[in-house]
Amino acid sequence: MRLAVNDINREPLGTASVDESARPSSITLDGGCRTILLQWEGALDEQGRLRRCPVCGCREIFRRQDFPQRLGLMLVIGTIIAAVVLIALWQVIWAMGVLLAAVVIDRIICVFTRECLVCYRCRTEFRDVTIDGSHEAWDLATGEKYRPIRRIETPRQDGPCTQA
Ligand SMILES: [Zn+2]
Fold first, then answer.
1. Are residues 53 and 75 in the same domain?
2. Residue 156 located in a structural domain
3. How many independent structural domains does the chain possess?
4. Nearest-angstrom CA–CA distance, 22 and 160
5. Is the Cβ–Cβ distance between 124 and 5 less than 8 Å?
């Protein structure tokens, strides 16, 4: 599996590849600067499906489209600007065409993007994992349960990375 690891404050720490069948107790993030401890107790079920975040131990994870969020935001903003400009120029048919094209592009991107699993607490993302109907999509009530209330101080790693 491929991990995009965040700390408990949901700050990105880095990425790493993990052979979940080996269940390593620690991983070194890409770049070699930081080592993360993993807790595999209950993280995988008998079928090898992820059930628990091995980074923070959270028991709840959700599935989502692995859609590049910046691309989605740019698509929405570009569509709104184009539609407003076209409506201001009394080109309502073209404006509707732009809106329809944006919907079609969005659906095409969704068809070709894969899904990933995300930890509710730390928001670490897990790619190249088995995802099936037992993994549920984002749930607002569960998300609120893990909404950060205050920043948790964690030891900082000072100084530049000395390894390539
Ligand atoms: Zn987590």
1. no
2. no
3. 2
4. 31
5. yes
Separation between Cα atoms, residue 164 and residue 86, nearest integer Å: 50
- Containing 27, the helix (H) or strand (E) segment is strand 26-28
**Which pLDDT band, with edges at 50, 70 and 90, does 162 fall under?**
low
- Token duo for residue 11: 């700050």
Q: How far is the CA of 124 from the centre of ligand 1 (A)?
A: 6
Please, are residues 82 and 98 in contact by the beta-carbon 8 Å criterion?
yes
| Ligand 1 center–CA 152 separation, angstroms | 14
Find the 88 Cα to ligand 1 centroid distance in Å.
Answer: 47
Taking residues 1-26, what's their average pLDDT? Answer: 92
Q: Which two tokens stand for residue 127?
A: 């790619």
28: containing domain: 2-63+117-145
Q: At which residue do the structure tokens 């073209």 appear?
A: 94
* Cβ-based neighbour number of residue 75 at 10 Å: 15
Question: Buried (b) or exposed (e) across 102-123, using 16+ Cβ within 10 A?
Answer: beeebeeeeeeeeebbbbbbbb
Q: How far is the CA of 80 from the centre of ligand 1 (A)?
A: 35
Which two structure tokens, joined as six digits, stand for 145?
Answer: 């349960």
Q: How confident is the model at residue 158 (pLDDT cuts 50, 70, 90)?
A: low
